[in-house]
Design a protein that fits this description.
11% strand, 26 helices, single chain, flat, 6-stranded mixed β-sheet
Length: 624
């Protein structure tokens, strides 16, 4: 039977974890107000921060896309883990030993942890092999590129022996099974047992943002190796090549601090940059730079001083490098940063440049970066013979698609002028071709949008659950939302009887009313120790996103001024009481109109007196 983590342990780990520290490893957070932190949402693309973290309450919420939850939910979403795996990961973070109701974790729950353990043991093994006689060719490779023993140790570089099962035998002796090592991507199963995936190669450990070894990259060293030049770990539970960036563990803090990332071609280029003082360098691992990489970097890039963040690409001068450059240009608008290209003298990459000309040459290469738009335009123009009219028209037409793709109008105008300077064609003709390219791009975008909307409609028809949406432009909804923010966030400053009365009667929007009933139920129970959690337990699951949004809304008053805060709370509660009084007044008036004074004079007089009392109450509430 699968082992289930004890509920008390789950709560204990969550209480010990600072959610801001965990999220801060993925998102650049800044102070907002009253114990709140803000950053760019990691779950959707945005330019203005709407992602809100409340450390004291232990939850996060995005006002843009509605995503939210506790620290476990965040780790699940970011690292593609099950709930149990997220608990185990966070427990390991604080060295907390979990207990299980059935004696231990299930195979599925423990597999991720075992892969990480196997990777760590393999990394130690590979590093120990680098000093052996058999690894002399690997040490020579490193020395020939300017990397000494200290550099190898810094990056954890190791050597995989040529033997078929050296690593397997070592890890088996440590207690790992064949299936565990196959799942980790370290060995391959065969009829005779298992053999190592990496043999006779220099090995780089690949780490995630928390510095855990999640996989390896290996370069061949021997002529009799029939495999590819570089071989990487296949996708596993912890390693997904489309999401992995080599060097991110070393670069993440400086990426956020400097609002800059340098994207290079390979492992040795990352090493060269870091050793030369370019500590924001990263590289992909055996795959093209893609959307998942962009999302990862967007979460880390910040611009605390107001200046735009920078993404700097370096590319080899060969055809593959040029193709990669144009692919990066196609994705440039997805970055929340300005994009650049840095090309070394004579086409040298950072590794070769450092080994031949030193650290300062690498620094100069990065400093001499050129805007990616300019680089892409020049690449397009270079394909044509500008000495002929046909070549000039072709060059402008090709480059116009680049210019038209620039979303910033001022920048688009500036690059149109650049194109006019670079190609000797009539100015009006160049501008007309840029406009034509822009129209074509917009037409393609509209066509794509229609297809996307058609697919979305199909999804709804198929029975997908719609997100709860409340129109806060509606004055009634806006008033009710302000009331709920106070009831949820500032209940301790409210009179409990008033709070319950307002919660049970002042809300007409069904979603607001359901949350308010949950507030009233918890307030009536009198246990405020886990206020928000108790409200959530009483609230329908489909409204949890709305509840998080309410709990994360910034109070528009100086919360450090207690007197001012109390006046604000009093004013909002008075609004709620006025809603109740006006609602009762409307009901009493309607009832009064229905009563026959001649047949029920007592009832008529009672309602008249009640209406007079309600009018006095309303006047008093307005004067407070």
């Amino acid at each position: 039977m699968a082992g289930k983590i004890r509920a008390t342990d789950i709560e204990e780990v969550k209480s010990r974890i600072n959610i801001a520290d965990v999220i801060g490893e993925y998102v650049a957070l800044k102070n907002a107000s009253m114990g709140s932190l803000k950053g760019l949402c990691p779950f959707h693309d945005e330019k203005s921060p709407s992602f809100n973290v409340r450390p004291a309450q232990g939850f996060y919420h995005c006002f843009g896309c509605g995503e939210g939850g506790d620290v476990y939910k965040f780790v699940q979403r970011m690292d593609s883990l099950s709930f149990s795996e997220s608990v185990e990961k966070l427990a390991a973070r604080i060295s907390f030993t979990l207990s299980y109701e059935d004696g231990g974790p299930s195979q599925d729950q423990g597999s991720r942890a075992r892969i990480l353990e196997a990777n760590n043991a393999a990394s130690v093994f590979y590093q120990s092999q680098l000093s052996t006689d058999a690894a002399a060719v690997g040490r020579e490779f490193l020395q020939g590129r300017g990397f000494d023993r200290a550099a190898a140790e810094l990056f954890g570089i190791g050597f995989a022996p040529k033997g078929w099962s050296s690593l397997f035998e070592h890890l088996k002796a440590l207690g790992f099974s064949i299936d565990e090592l196959v799942n980790a991507g370290l060995v391959t199963k065969s009829d005779r047992g298992a053999y190592d995936k990496f043999r006779g190669r220099l090995v780089w450990p690949i780490r995630d943002t928390t510095a855990q070894v999640i996989g390896f990259g290996a370069r061949k060293l021997f002529d009799d190796d029939q495999g590819p030049k570089y071989l990487n770990t296949s996708d596993t539970l912890v390693y997904h090549k489309s999401q992995v960036l080599y060097g991110i563990d070393l670069a993440k803090r400086d990426i956020t601090k400097q609002s800059q990332v340098v994207v290079v071609e390979g492992y040795t280029d990352v090493m060269a940059c870091h050793l030369a003082g370019i500590t924001t360098a990263v590289a992909t691992c055996g795959t093209a730079f893609g959307d998942d990489h962009i999302r990862l970097l967007n979460r880390m890039l910040s611009n605390q001083d107001g200046s735009p963040a920078q993404v700097i690409f370096t590319f080899d001068p060969d055809a593959a490098g040029q193709k990669a450059a144009m692919r990066a240009f196609a994705d440039s608008e997805k970055f929340k940063a300005d994009t650049f290209v840095a090309v070394g003298p004579n086409g040298l990459d950072p590794c070769d440049l450092r080994s031949t000309q030193g650290d300062e040459a690498v620094q100069r290469m990065i400093q001499a970066k050129k805007p990616l738009f300019e680089f892409a335009m020049r690449q397009k123009i270079a394909l044509f013979d500008l000495n002929s009219l046909e070549g000039q028209v072709g060059a402008v037409r090709a480059a116009a698609s680049v210019v038209a793709s620039i979303s910033d109008q001022a920048m688009r105008t500036a690059y149109t002028r650049k194109l006019i300077e670079w190609v000797p064609l009539d100015e009006n003709q160049v501008q007309a071709m840029v406009l034509e390219a822009g129209k074509a791009a917009r037409a393609n975008a509209v066509a794509g949008l229609k297809l996307e909307n058609r697919g979305a409609a199909t999804e709804v028809e198929a029975g997908s659950v719609a997100k709860v949406s409340i129109d806060l432009n509606d004055p009634i909804n806006r008033t009710e939302r302000a009331l709920l923010v106070v009831l949820v966030q500032l209940a301790a400053r409210c009179d409990r009887a008033e709070l319950i009365r307002i919660a049970l009667g002042a809300f007409s929007n069904p979603a607001h009313a359901a949350i308010a009933r949950a507030v009233a139920a918890v307030a009536e129970a009198g246990d405020l120790s886990n206020w928000l959690g108790s409200i959530a337990a009483q609230t329908p699951e489909e409204l949890h996103g709305t509840l998080r949004e309410i709990a994360a809304t910034t109070i528009q008053v100086n919360t450090d001024d207690i007197a001012m805060l109390d006046r604000y709370v009093r004013g909002i509660l008075n609004t709620g009481l006025q809603v109740l009084a006006n609602r009762e007044k409307a009901q009493s008036l309607a009832e009064l109109r229905r009563i026959d004074k001649a047949t029920d004079p007592e009832g008529y007089d009672t309602l008249r007196r009640r209406l007079a009392e309600l009018d006095r109450d309303l006047q008093l509430l307005k004067s407070r």
